[in-house]
TrEMBL record:
Residues 86-135, 146-189 form the B box-type domain. This is Uncharacterized protein. It comes from the Eukaryota. Coiled coil: none annotated. Pfam families: zf-RING_UBOX (PF13445). The keyword Metal-binding applies.
Amino acid sequence: MADTLKNVIAQSLECPVCLNTFTDPKILPCSHTYCKTCLENLLECHGNDQMLRCPVCRAETQVPNQEVSKLPANLALRSLIEDMKNQYQFCSNCKSEDKPQAVVYCQDCGRYFCITCNNKHSQWPVFISHEVLAMSEIVSGKVSVRRWRKCRKHPKEDEECFCSDCRRFACFRCVVMEHKDEGHRIIEAAVYESCHMKCVEYLKSKADKKRSCFQKYVDFIDEQKDRVNNVQKQCTDDINNAFEESVRQLTERKELLIGEVKGMTEGVEKELDEMQKSAQEHITHLTTIADVVTNKTKIPLDMDALAAHDTLCQDLQEALKQEDPDYQRPRQSSKKGKSVSFKRNVGMDENGLGKIVNAVAKNIALPIKNSMNDMVSTPDGRMAVGCWAGGVEIFSADGQHQQTIFKDKPINGLRFLSDDRYVLLDGNNITLYTPQYTTLNVMFETLSEGEGECPSLTVDVDDQIYVSYMDAEKIQVFSPAGGKAIREIPCDGYIPVQITNYNDYLITESSDTIRLIDKQGVVKYQLTKSGDSLTAAVSRGNTILIATVKHDVGLVSIDEYTNKLKHVQNLVIDYKIEKNERGPWYTLQQYRSGEIAFCTPDRLYIFH
C-alpha cells in the first residue's frame, strides 16, 4: 500500500507539460501548476503576447513584460517535492518489518531492491534482461523511473484501458462501473499510446519540414540582402574614388551622395529585415512548440496532462497552417536596391562628382513614330499602347513587342471592363469589343467633335465609363449598356486633359498640374510643378505614381505619392529620354509584375 501511495504522490508531482517532476513550480490564478521553464516556453510560443493560456483549462493569465518569475510559487508543492527527494526508498521485496534501504530499482518488475535482493534478482535467468537503475542516479535526476500505471481507485489493478471520450486511463473494473454507458469509446491503453506516439511523430515531421521551408526562405533573404549590400558598397567605393581625386571642398557633396545611396537602400534592407524577422519568428515558434509537444520521455497519464498535450497539439496544428513563404516579395524588394548606381561626371562639371541613378530602363521604339495616344495595363499583365495612326501595340514586361491589334482603328483612348472587354475611344466614339476583338452592338451618345474635342477615357471598378472633353471642360459618365450619359461631372476652373480612375476619385492631368477630384467634380487635392509636364497612374500598391518631365532637356523623374498627393519616395531621378517631334504628350502605367512603363509619342521606357 505504501509503494502504491508513493507512486500516486510521485505522479501528482509531475508537470502536465514536460511530464517530469516539477522544477520551480509556479501556480496560475486558475489553480493549475507548471514548471517555470514550461510557462516561459508556452509564453514564447505566442510571440510578444503577454497573455498566457493555461493548457489544461485554457484560462488566460496576464504576464506583464513576460516575466514568469513574478508569478506566485506553489510553496506547498515545492516543499513536498523536497521531502520526497530526501526520503529513503526501502526494499519492496523484503518481508521483515525493518526493511533495508533500496539500492536499485527494476524498471520491468516495478520494484525496489536492497543489496541482498538485487543479488538474487540478478541471478535469476528470467530476470537477467531486466533494466535495473541505481538509486543514486534516480535521486540525482540522471535517469527517470518508468512508473507503473496503477488505478488510483483499485491500486492492485493496472490501467489497461483508455476512454477516448473521458480522456482517461482506467482499469477493467473502472471500465465496467464508470465507462459502460453508450458514448464511451474504450480502447486498449497500449493502442492509445501507439496512436499518440504516431501522431506526435507525424507532427514533428511536419514541423521539421515547415521549419526547413522557412529556413530556406531566411537564407534566400540573406542572399538578397548581400546583393543589396554589395550594390551599396560598390556605390560607396565609386564615390570615395571620385572624391579622392578631387579637392577637399567636395566633402559636403560626397556626404550628400552617400546619404542618397543609404536612403535608397536602407529602406530596402529594412523591408528585407522585416520579412526575415517574421520568418525567423515563425521558425522559433515552430521549434519551441514542437519541442514541447514531441517530448517522448513519457505518455500523459492524467486528465490535466492529456488536456495540456491536446492544447499544445492544436497550437502546433494551427502553426502548421502558416502558408509557405512568398519568394516574390524579397525578390521585388531587392530589385529596388539593386537598381541603384553611381554615375560619375565625365567631361562636364568634374567638381560635382556625379549623381546617384536608381533606375535602369529599356528603351523601345514604337512601330509608328509620334503616334501614341494612350496606354493601359492588360488583364493578362502586359502593356497596351494605343496609337492615333491606328492599332494597339502589345508589349511584355521585358520589352518584347508581341502583337498588334485593331490595326485600322485610330485610338484616342483604351481601357478594359471587368470581364476583359475592350473599351476603345475612336475620335469621340466609344466602341466595345470582346476579348476576341469582335465588335459589340452597343451605341453611346457622346458629344460630337464640334461640341467636345480632345477626349480622354477611363473606366472605374463598377465598369462605368468616363469620357472627358478639354474644350467642353466636363466629364460624361456612361453605363457599359450604352445610350446617353447617365450623368455629367463639371470641371470648373480646370481642363481635364487626361483622366484616370482612382478609388472613389478621378485623377485629372492639366499640363503642369495633377488634381484629385471626387465624382461630383470637386477638387480635393492638387499638385503643381510649374514649367514641367505631369502625368499620373495608379500603382499596384494603390498609391499614385507621377512622372515629371522636363521636356526641353529631355529628363523624366517618377515619384510615389499618397492618396492625398503627399510625397512618399523617389523612384526614378532625372532619367534621360529622347526628345520627340510631337511635343509634351506622355502616359504612365505600371505592369502587374512591378515594372513601370513610361511612354512618349514614339518610345516606350520600361523601368525595373
